[in-house]
Design a protein that fits this description.
single chain, 351 residues, alpha+beta, Uridine Diphospho-n-acetylenolpyruvylglucosamine Reductase, domain 2, Uridine Diphospho-n-acetylenolpyruvylglucosamine Reductase, domain 3, Uridine Diphospho-n-acetylenolpyruvylglucosamine Reductase, domain 1, 3 domains, five-stranded mixed beta sheet, five-stranded antiparallel beta sheet, 21 strands, 28% strand, binds flavin-adenine dinucleotide, binds uridine-diphosphate-2(N-acetylglucosaminyl) butyric acid
């Protein structure tokens, strides 16, 4: 059966038997029974009352850059397509900006930089939507989005009402938040950020300082840090437009300091960072590469030969094949190092 658009009421569109292939960056060829695109926050209550949603399971999707569909989704997928960026009243310390969930994160970061606002430069070139950014508290090059998020607006799908979360209520952690722990409960509709007027560049993450030096920059402005991060990311990570992937497929594991010490005694080159709570964070990429998986493949499912943390679809791997390969990698690391890797993307139907 081919995709079919059904009646198009104001504020949202519905497509039956919708292909997800262009809606997930791992390029898995799955389908959703119904796909609902929301163009206006005000239409959410009407959408929830629509007969197509009655009794159906629902899930939320942004740009699909952090999901693995292991099969079809036999229910309704809701996607925020709302647009809009607005400068709110700020104060002496910070500019405040409200941005709609359907905006593309990287476009938004570039817009802030063009307006002369500092803060988000290390988070340039992360794929996906603004609405998904609080979900796993996106982070890169020593900075996390949660540091700048003042509040998150959402529609509570259980209680059927709009709600707002102050920063502390979001419970941001490493690739973690209250939203990630309760998927599909709150449909995030907008976020408000506080971007400090005085901002020191954050260039301590490995490689950033060297890249700035390579660019001949001594006193980096935010735009220079952004350029350095773009160069590093482009060199290290495969482009989903060229080869299907969802960025890091596993989180860097957090383990007790004593276990890390034992591992380091046998593997002195294993990158290991102390965490604020006295534990240790290990490089999952290093563990995977040490097990020989970098560049390995089985059919069209594999691990990138550019970065060991990136699961790739070489062409026509199904979600189930990608998931099976990821589990092989996880088993290999567990057997050799006694460390259990947790997937970073949401695995739909398989976990
Ligand atoms: P999706 O993949 O569509 O969804 C991800 C999760 O968010 C799902 O659970 C979904 O249900 C939920 N969700 C989506 N929209 C909403 C909403 N409006 N309300 C509530 N829940 C919602 N991530 C990093 O943190 N740092 C990186 O450096 C990084 N680099 C990447 C590089 C590449 C090449 C790729 C492909 C991915 C990378 N990622 C990175 C992962 C990804 O970009 C982020 O997780 C991004 O925030 C996902 O956005 P999305 O719109 O594609 O979300
Ligand atoms: N490494 C290897 N082999 C590889 C790649 C890396 O051994 O193939 C080792 C190297 O020692 C390197 C270390 O891993 O120094 C760290 O590598 P990198 O700087 O690329 O960072 P990462 O820990 O692999 C994390 C995030 C990325 C984020 C970068 C930069 C997670 C799970 N991943 O990767 O986020 O862009 O840091 O901050 O925390 C994502 O979440 O999808 C993502 C891409």
């Amino acid at each position: 059966m081919s995709a079919r658009d059904v009646a198009q009421p104001e504020g949202f569109t519905l497509t039956e038997n919708a292909s997800l292939r262009e809606r997930n960056t791992l390029r898995v060829d799955a389908h959703a029974a119904v796909f609902a695109e929301i163009h206006d926050d005000g239409a959410i209550p009407d959408l929830l009352d629509h007969p197509a949603l009655r009794g159906q399971p629902t899930m939320l999707l942004g740009e699909g850059s952090n999901v693995l569909f292991t099969g079809d989704f036999d229910g309704v997928i809701l996607g925020m397509k709302t647009r809009g960026v607005e400068e709110l009243d700020g104060d002496a310390a910070a500019t405040r900006i409200r941005v709609a969930a359907g905006e593309h994160w990287d476009d938004f970061v570039r817009w802030t930089l063009a307006q002369g606002h500092a803060g988000l430069e290390n988070l340039i070139l992360i794929p996906g939507s603004v609405g998904a950014a609080p979900m796993q508290n996106i982070g890169a090059y020593g900075v996390e989005a949660g540091e700048f998020i003042e509040s998150v607006e959402a529609f509570d799908l259980r209680e059927r009402r709009p709600v707002a979360f102050a920063n502390a209520q979001c419970q941001f952690g490493y690739r973690d938040s209250v939203f990630k722990r309760n998927p599909d409960r709150w449909l995030i509709t907008a976020i408000t950020l506080r971007l400090p007027r005085e901002h020191a560049p954050r260039i301590e993450y490995a490689g950033v300082r060297d890249e700035l030096q390579r660019l001949g920059i001594e006193h980096p402005a935010p735009i220079h840090v952004a350029d350095a991060v773009v160069n590093l990311r482009t060199r290290k990570l495969p482009d989903p437009k060229v080869i299907g992937n969802a960025g890091s497929f596993f989180k860097n594991p957090l383990i007790p300091a004593a276990q890390a010490e034992t591992l380091l005694a046998d593997n002195p080159h294993l990158p290991c960072w102390p965490t604020a709570d006295g534990n240790a964070k290990l490089s999952a990429a290093w563990l995977i590469e040490a097990c020989g998986f970098k560049g390995a493949r089985e059919g069209d499912a594999g691990i990138s030969n550019r970065h060991a943390l990136v699961l790739v679809n070489h062409g026509h791997a199904s979600g189930a094949q990608l998931w099976a390969f990821a589990q092989r990698v996880r088993e290999g690391v567990r057997e050799r190092f006694g460390v259990t890797l947790e997937p970073e993307p949401r695995v739909i139907g398989g976990f």
